[in-house]
User: What shape does this take?
Amino acid sequence: MLIETARTPSLLLDINRVRANAARLAGVAKQNNVRLRPHIKTHKCIEVARIQTKGFDGAVTVSTLAEAKAFAASGFTDITYAVPIEPGKFGEASKIARSGVKLNLLTDDLATARALDEHARKAGTPFDVFVKIDCGTHRVGVEPDSEMAVMIPRMISDAKNIKFAGILTHAGHSYDARTVEEIKGVARHERDVMVELAARLRGMGIEVPTVSIGSTPTMNHIDHLEGIDEIRPGNYIFFDNFQATLGSCSFQDTALTVLAAVIHKDLDHKKIVIDAGGIAMSKDRGPVGLDPSCGYGRVLDLAGVDTGSRLTSVSQEHGVITDVGEEMLHRTKVGDRFRILANHSCMTAAQHTHYNVLENGEIVDRWAILRGW
Assistant: This one.
């Protein structure tokens, strides 16, 4: 199928770039002798996950139990649910575990760990449980030098029905960096904090089977991974406007765009309106700290070449482009197509039901996106 005839708005996924991105990060993992457990929340797609895990053991990271169920049903049997578990989800987690899947959970709360141990006893479904560590993002997790960073691992290690899987962190604050040097600093800190905590726990007689780290920015700029067992980047498979502006990748690495049609042109106000609004794009403002004019995405032509314009505003189903050059404005007509490079590919992909797989300029396949919680 030709791009010009595809329904809009819809997702275009450049499969050659996906394969190249997968190979690049796989090389990082193999060179550093660590397990790659990619975070599939970026794409929520079985076919993409198979590309990512080729040559590895098939382990993945998910952000919802719906993702865990869907991937388990498609043959993925080693899954980490990377959101702190809460008691209301114990029963659903047990059902997934009983299906034959190794479902790893995480917590940063002592009372929850105790409750999970009791639930596992009653349900007969033991879990491997990570303790979530805060390495600087300050979203969830225990501080690495806190009393709880020792108490929770010790409690889980001593429990009869759950098993201590290790310590896990995510340097989400790497997205706030403004230079590559800042990202490198965050990457080193993420690694060093976890290696030091693992050594401290082991010195207290607590076995730490796995030290798990990794965001896309940090894993693309880390100097070494000594003392680390596992990395869990996710966005790297698609990248996006944010990552390219941040310096985690080049714009030639970005694999996901939204195909949109022109529905209105206004010569007097020098604007173009497309049929991709907040629902198709998400309202993630992206790298506004680095590029105040980033809007809601970069406007590309059908060949993927940057036009220099931005999607400046969105409502539910309308996207407005106002920074339009005279030549582009006059040659554009209603019905023409543009490709919008999303600010945040994870958020944008989650708005859609499927990818149109693009190879050498043509749509060659359609891959489902598994949504829900």
User: Anything to note?
Assistant: The CA atoms of residues 243 and 249 lie 6 Å apart. Residues 3-10+249-368 form a domain with the Lyase, Ornithine Decarboxylase; Chain A, domain 1 fold (CATH 2.40.37.20). The longest strand covers residues 256-266.
